[in-house]
## 1
Amino acid sequence: MITERTEEYLEAIYYLYERGEAATTTSVAKELKVAPASATQMLKKLAKQGYLKYVPYRGVTLTPKGEKIGKKVLRKHRVMEKFLSNLGLPKSRVHKDACELEHHIPDDLERVIHQRFEGERLLPPGAPSNVVPLTSLLDGQKGIVSFIGGGRGASQRLTDLGLTPRTEIKVVKSALFRGPLMVSVRGTTLAIGRGIAATVFVRVK
Amino acid sequence: MSTAEKRPITIALAGNANVGKSVIFNYFTGLHQHIGNWPGKTVEKAEGTLHFKGHAVDVIDLPGIYSLSAFSIEERVSREYIAIQKPDIVINIVDASVLERNLFFTIQLLELETPMIMALNQMDVAKGKGITINIPQLQKSLGIPIIPTIATGGTGLDKLLGKAVKIAKGKKANPAKMRYGREIEEKISKVTKLVEKIPIKYPPRWVAIKLLEGDEEIRKIVGRIDQKIVSSAERYARDLERIHGELCSTIITSERYNVANKIARGSQRITPPRGPSLTERLDAVTTHPVMGYPILIGIMFLVLFTVFTVGGYLSGFFEDVMGPIRGAFGGEIGELIGEGVFGGLIAGIAIVLPFILPFYLILTLLEGSGYLPRAAFMTDNLMHRMGIHGKAFIPFILGYGCNVPACLGCRIMETERERTIAAFVVTLVPCAAVTVVVLGLVGAFVGIHWALALYLLNLVIIFILGRVAFKVLPGESMGLIMEMPPYRKPHVRSVLKETWMRVKDFVYIAFPLIIIGSVVLTGLKVGGLLEPIGNTLSPVTVGWLGLPAITGVLLVFGVLRKELTLVMLATLMATTNFATVLTPIQMIVFAIVVMYYIPCIATIAALVRELGWKKAAYITVFEIAFALLIGGIAFRLLTA
């Protein structure tokens, strides 16, 4: 049985990964709002259980086993956020409740809710959810915009430029050193900073 | 009635960025333009006049935007102007080669229910991309007259103007009403009925749509009249969100794009040409992960080199020609006129203008060619570390030459917050004049490694202060979201005209300031106030910074031109061997203070131009305090 705390940690580390930030004791502790000392202790424990590799003063890398859990919990968190905000809950509660629910909701239920908001037919049970941030597409890969999770200003600007749900988008190339992405959408080419691109979720074909 | 008594016809040009709007504006108005700011805003307002068949015509060039939401000042300025000032006609300029995205904006203009015609521009580019457009069909779908144009060649523009004036006079245009999905229309008409009952300057249907979208500004305006309308619109929006599972603003934006897509598909045929386009081939090299960077560095070097060789040459030329005027006046009043008024004027013409002119020319060229967005793309990550994004790269690099054009270049940033941070960071970059002081004093008398260390320290400080400004300043930071327009050959006439207008605009703002500053300083000198000033400042200069009292005067004069600090040091001390008057530590401290202590008067003028008086004053005061702080710390560390 994986504890909630374990899930929280793996989720936070995966989240840092996704944004391209280094996962160190400090950054993980900051992300989870815990004391660095207790983060250190927990990371050591997780390393022993085989979820991650921990090098003192350097940081952590997730093992495939840890990455799988981190990714899954983060996805559940996002689906629950979307679900709750659709119910009309205020933003302050959405995040808090999603943090709670992400540990309890069964995989198949999460998938059903997710697909309800995608407006699509159900995939066979057990199929992996194929919605990923735009940043995880390879150069030349295409996806269909699913939703945009970023701030209001940025997401308005993105939709204004044509990134509306169900639009096809292609990553042309990404700049070196985790720089911005060049994408093509509706016959135009756009450059999107990596931080913003990470809030655009696409369904991979 | 004579034509002189008639009210001029007003035409507003509206469209996305990079569609050739400014080329058309320049064609219409020639040099009869005025570039200023919109009242109370730091958004550029370009206005021009012309005469057409006996009619006086005012042309307003609205900012290049993609939407009419309230998120950027440009968008707010544009929609307020169209809805409230009500130009006689709007010319929507559309890039025929990206029809769908442009129609998205057209649809929003139609929502504003303004008389409108369309210039279907860049027909040549569209043809190159294998796009043919059925104009009668498009005209039918939108209900507005459409004139195909190629602005860079002048094709179709006279016809466009004729048509615009004709419609503006007759006020006869019946744009098609755009209709969205059934359940959305239901809510729109319900809210429209409520809005129709209240007095509001915007079209009711448009207000209804904006309320459903949750537009902050419109909610406030309507809320002041009747809060109930806002809350019922909110309720309807929630209903829609439940049906669609998306934010209401997203639903409506998608809906507009659906309409745009349908119209575009119905009226254009695309047969893509074989092989990659010129842009694709150029992009493969210029944004290549390996080759892209040497190219970027090469281009930046070329820009700096050109600006400073041309600038240096022109500067020397003007100085030689105009310099003698300065001493041509005798007596105290004569000195005030000669040194003060003419000295300031000459400083403006001989020192500032020669660098501004080539800079603007190159900036406009780079803008027109489409390379700027590529440079921003390549450097976004680096610039992020100092709290700004890729677009600020060019102003940043230019800052090493002269802070003035660099500050003016910050206008390419989208949000006011980003513009402020970029301009602030740029004023911290040591310009050529500062380099003269650092190299001439520290480099020559203390050692070149100390000079380099000062530059390294400067970079560190820029990174830190940039990040601090990023954290402290309010407002949303957008990050990088920009269109990468195709590469194109810059249109020479437009580039020259735009350069000229920008230079003129700068002269109007900066020259009075430079001359006033110069007169005041000369007045102090003539009035024998220099020594008292030096003495007054001595607690700071001598007590805190450990410098000789004379440096107070130098620092005051440095506000005019920073290299003056060194020039005057030589004059006042009657020696160029500075080692005899300053200790190495004093030199370092002095150079540090000069580096940061205040943007020179021309830079302050540029800051005023871009950010307004208040922010310019904040930045100036902060930098004075910061320079004194760090100078004092350096003095104590070095003597410890």
## 2
Amino acid sequence: MRYLPLSSDDRADMLARIGVETIDDLYADAPQDVLLKTPLDLPRRRSEIEVERRLSALSAKNVAAGAKPFFVGAGAYKHHVPASVDHLIQRSEFLTSYTPYQPEISQGTLQVLFEFQTQVANLTGMEVANASMYDGSTATAEAILMAHRVTRRRKALLSGGLHPHYAETARTLSDMAEDEIVLLPPDPSGAEDLIGALDDSLSCLVVQNPDFFGHLRDLRPLAEACHKKGILLVAVVTEVVSLGLIESPGAMGADIVVGEGQSIGNGLNFGGPYVGLFATREKFLRQTPGRLCGQTLDAEGRRGFVLTLSTREQHIRREKATSNICTNSGLCALAFSIHLSMLGATGLKQLALINHAHAVALAEALEKRGDVEVLNRSFFNEFTLRVKGDAAALVEAMAAQGVLGGVPVSRLLPGAGLDDLLLVASSEINTDADRAAFLAALDRGMQQ
Amino acid sequence: MNQLGRPTQAHFVTREAPETFTANRALQINEALIFETGREDFTGVDLDAPAPFTPRLGGLERQSELGLPGLSEPETMRHYVRLSQKNYAIDAGLYPLGSCTMKHNPRLNEKMARLPGFGDIHPLQPVSTVQGALELIEELSGWLLALTNMKAVAMSPKAGAHGEMCGMMAIKAAIAAKGEAATRKIVLAPESAHGTNPATAAALGFSVRAVPAGPDGLVHPDAVKAALGPDVAAIMLTNPNTCGLFERDIVEIARLVHEAGAYFYCDGANFNAIVGKVRPGDLGIDAMHINLHKTFSTPHGGGGPGAGPVVLSERLAAFAPVPFLRRDGDKLGLVEHVAGTQAFGRMTAFHGQMGMFVRALAYILSHGADGLAKASEDAVLAANYLRVGLSDLMSAPFGDRPCMHEALFDDTWLKDSGLTTLDFAKAMIDEGFHPMTIYFPLVVHGAMLIEPTESESRVSLELFLATMRDLAMRALRGETERFLGAPFYAPRRRLDETAAARKPVLRWRKPEPVEE
């Protein structure tokens, strides 16, 4: 077996040195009636060629985003990632190291985390950020728990513009933790009255910007209204590239900003692994979930970095920890950080502008037609399109013509009476030819 | 003399190393932060400006500063390569972190995860365009169920702790379905449990009742029986346990737990020791997460991403969260909504860690049933080899009992040396080894938990043994200096963690301008 270095002679010799006859003598504590004496009746080992052949065949059955005009978003976005990012994250020293428990021989990972935390804090307009979460949805659920701890209240209000899967993830955790959660109905018009829904029993208001339907929202009046009632404003960003162009949630008064960082440095990967972003105000630091990296000095007075404030964490505090999180998304955070280091402020602004320009170009082309309606007054790189008939059937029809045309709202919100709504995302990868293909596929799809 | 006639011997071998101008030491190069070297007006990504257009941002254009430096591609490569050189890694040497399973990460798996049909597909594409991806998930699920002899598997949890959360939620849902939600509020966990166990239970509104282990490091049926009652929802037990031992009475414990109307959550962090040898379903458990990043070798990446699918027994299968697969003839579909199912809810936005699924399946197919069992055996063999090779010098808290995949020592043997477990660990760094897990499990004083995994050659194991023995003898001889000052040769000497926590500096800030 190519991954196992011990030879039969090694094994025999080692057993003798241990003082047992067979390997199963070392499994003496296992119930002998369930100890498997021969391998299970399942396929045997395969060569590298065979495994590659098998998995390549499975891969070939899927339609890759890069192979077709692609307009699918709703919380995961196809962006171009520079080749150096994937090269660097595959360096052994990053790829095959563990959580940096021994800081003297983990300064690479730790400095990356320190830079990542600074990048996330600056991007979101917040004071501090943690070293990453699993993804945007779990970060949102954790933000609600944190707001409960900070305010000592146990009821959250979720905007109807929050990604439905995020809302469902938060609702599941909230129900299980026996907290209260109020979820406003889906809001395709971007006109819900959140301020009117606030009361001082709430720990937090959770608002997404741009929201699930693509609308942009001024968070300032919300923050002001929340703070008057002692409520924390949790801002959710599922398309982090938008922060290159849109005012940061921190500057608009948010208390916790969570986000999905996949758009920068990370591929689509069918939904994971992704990288959750979590940023907040310094005063809430000790209620923050997840790992934190901090600066310090070594015995010779040189700058170095360590994991810190671990007294919040499960391995020290156990049942009193701020979260049960242990593993996070280190390598995806690295990819995010490398890509953002290359972009810098200048590149991120330009990237965001191109995304917006491509979405505007498509929206304008669609608005020239009489048979569909763009619901958004404002948007970043994704908007909601009202089509004639069933959007899910339309997406299938467009896919049959080789265009991945978006996400039918009914896929995430079945039975909500929103079957004619289609979410359409654009990014820097889309060309004029892609948009022409989209329009042509839409024509034929709607005729069916 | 070499071919050019120059002397190859150093002339002044005894002279002390000088301070360098840069404070670098040859290959150990200090690296500034990107915020200290990068420029906000520079970008390393070439993007053409779009044609003029009318923005539709609703007046929300960003006014606040971004504060993000940009680097050219050569600067980027150098920055991250230099940083990488300050990390220890499995690819560089033995990494015996107990409970963490730092085994070899095959590069075939990386290559497979990057195939466009896996790496470049969107979670919300029409299911007709991702049939191969769903087939892969189905195939991996099949392996996980066969290796554990369980009924169902929830694939979406994103890491071990997330899997624990998922399994405990399924248990909570099952208890609620029986109308016992108000009464069953206690979760039993031994004191040796991973911290995630009590943290998970507490997050779900349970109180934790500790179960003591016996002097042999095992949980005994009597102790479980004494702790059980009509108020108990579940037991969370790790097997093999965190002391590296197989819970000998686990079948009897499962029987008692079920008899009391409670559920058995098994922490599967140490599944690596028994894959292909024991099927946890045969032991009577109800739920167990599988850390694909430990047992099935998806890379740890400096702290994630992981993946924590949860296998469930017949009693819990119906409560598995969405999304899950449903096969309809030769087509696979996804059930993404709770309505019309008994699913307890949703763990995360999409379908789980697909990138990790591909790697794990590549690992499983490469090994096959025979190779998986052999890998478990080799891991157990290597751990016992180290245990026996060190037990005359170091103290094992539970005597000569064979261990599973990791060997546990305590600090009794260091009692009169003036040294701690931490000192010993730091000296290992100077010898070129990553230290073992230290001070865990908490039930053993000054714990040293050594997990060599199946990936080490005989030569590597012998060098590690010889090194550990040499260090141990030096410690016992009173040569304290090399321990107390260690590490001497790492990129950094010991770091002041107390200062870091007292006055946290968690981000770079622009230095205040100095007034002349």
